[in-house]
Amino acid sequence: MLKSFTAAPHRVMFFGGAVQTLLAMLWWLFELSTRYLLPQYSVSWPLLPAAIHSWLLLFGMLPFFFFGFLMTTFPRWMAGHEIPVQRYVPAFVFMLGGVLLFHAGLYFGTVLLTLASASMLTGWAGGLYALWRVLRDTRPGDKRHPLLLFIAFSLGWLALAAFLLWQLTDAHVLLQSALRLALWGFVLPVFATVAHRMFPFFTSSALQIKEVPRPFWTLWVMLAASLLHGVLELLGRNAWLWLADLPLALAAFTLSWLWGLRRSFANPLLAVLHVGFAWLGIAMLLYAAQSLWLGWHGAYILGLAPLHALTIGCYATLVIGMGTRVTLGHSGLPFTVDTPVKLMFAGIQLVALLRIAADLLPQHSGPLYLLAVVGWLACFGPWVWRYLPAYWRPRADGQPG
User: Fold this and answer.
1) Cα(352)–Cα(314) distance, rounded to whole angstroms?
2) What's the number of CA atoms in the CB half-sphere (13 Å) around residue 248?
3) Which of 10, 46, 265, 352 has the smallest count of CB within 10 Å of its CB?
4) Cβ-count burial 72-109 (b if 16+ within 10 Å, e if not)
5) Helix, strand or coil, per DSSP, at residue 215
6) Distances from the Cα of 67 to the Cαs of 13, 92, 396, in angstroms?
7) Crossing angle for the helix pair 144-169 and 62-77, nearest 10 degrees?
8) Is 334 exposed, middle or buried (0-12, 13-18, 19+ CB in 10 A)?
9) Phi and psi at residue 156, in whole multiples of 5°?
10) Is 341's pLDDT higher than 90?
11) Is the pLDDT of residue 190 over 90?
12) For the stretch 10-27, what's the b/e string if a residue is b when 16 or more beta carbons lie within 10 angstroms of its beta carbon?
């Protein structure tokens, strides 16, 4: 079992990401339940609940899925050698150790929380080194996507380092810098770059289309606008966010149109990727509308709705869609999804709408928060039950990896 579990980077990393997702959302369910339903059981956490929630998802969950995917695809994109087990297993061990220490630290003190961030930083650095070796050792060629992803991962590492410094110093500006750099310098650029690199290929293969366009100007606009959004937020210039958000939305919607969002529904596994990416344009339009309203009327009207359109609608849908695709393909299983999996994908869209509604209907926010997190667990729990064993079982087709 151990040999199969460590046979490929996506196995260990997706395992860590799946387990951490469940742990993170179970903690969030407990926090919301004690906040709105059972205040007598509420816990005084050693860190701000919003900071805990952000760490668990931005630094504790997404890096597992990102590294699992990229450690698999980097060598294939650049015709290089597979990343050896001696590089990705230690990275996984330190990252998993960081997650477990963080959960323990929530109940046993800030020292463990600090060690958790340090352990995650160590594992992340190991993963960065593994990706860098592929970049360095492969022959010259078009390495724009891999290089952009390596830069985004490096910015993510710096964001976690800033979070660790906040834990040590309690300087609030470090927390704000960490979260904005993670969201706008790391997570969105990774999703945008991977989508730009892979979705035309997936679409062409699934729908038997000879060529699917992939203009690079859209990628440059998305990356530049994402960074600009983060800088403007950090400077407190939220009334000017539309300067970044409208171009980003335009670029995202352009790609959705060029890639054929509507025709993607002929293939459910492909459709979920296109739907997830379409949420990027929707989220940025919501951000732009909130920014313009703030500039004209001096008030926020959407709360955190744009953020959750982005993080649940776009990111969660794409993580599950890509996770399913990679798990099936690299386990020797057919690229087919049945009704329960389709319902799970649809359920994630409902979760996104519920979480958005919680900000649009603040008088009902508590129940809607709880419904959203319960819905998330109801969708992702069966996914874990179904696909987690694939990470320690041999491939169904008898192939290595």
Assistant:
1) 9
2) 30
3) 265
4) bbbbebbebebbeeebbebbbbbbbbbbbbbbebbeee
5) coil
6) 7, 9, 23
7) 150
8) exposed
9) -65, -40
10) no
11) yes
12) bbbbbbbbbbbbbbbbeb
Q: Coil, helix or strand for 330? A: coil
Contacts of 207 by beta carbon, 8 Å cutoff, 6+ apart: 260, 263, 264, 266, 267, 270
Q: What is the dihedral of CA 374, 377, 378, 384, to 10 degrees?
A: -170
In eight-state DSSP terms, residue 267 is S
Tokens linked to 271: 């459709």
Quote the tokens at residue 217.
């100007």
Q: What is the pLDDT of residues 113-172, one digit of tens each?
A: 999 999 999 999 999 999 999 999 998 888 999 999 999 999 999 999 999 999 999 999
- The answer on pLDDT for 209 being more than 90 is no
User: How far, in Å, CA of 192 to CA of 220, rounded?
Assistant: 10
CA angle 184, 61, 365 (to 5 degrees): 75
pTM of the model: 0.96
Q: Are 6 and 357 in contact (CB under 8 A)?
A: no
Are residues 127 and 88 in contact, defined by beta-carbon separation less than 8 angstroms?
A: yes
Q: Provide CB contacts within 8 A for 50, sequence distance 6+.
A: none
Are residues 127 and 102 in contact, defined by beta-carbon separation less than 8 angstroms? Answer: no
Q: What token pair was written down for 38?
A: 């059972």
SS (H, E, C) 76-119: HHCCCCCCCHHHHHHHHHHHHHHHHHHHHHHHHCHHHHHHHHHH
**Three-state secondary-structure class, residue 10:** helix
Phi, psi for 275 (deg, rounded to 5): -65, -45
User: CA separation (Å) from 44 to 50, 52, 395, 398?
Assistant: 13, 12, 45, 51
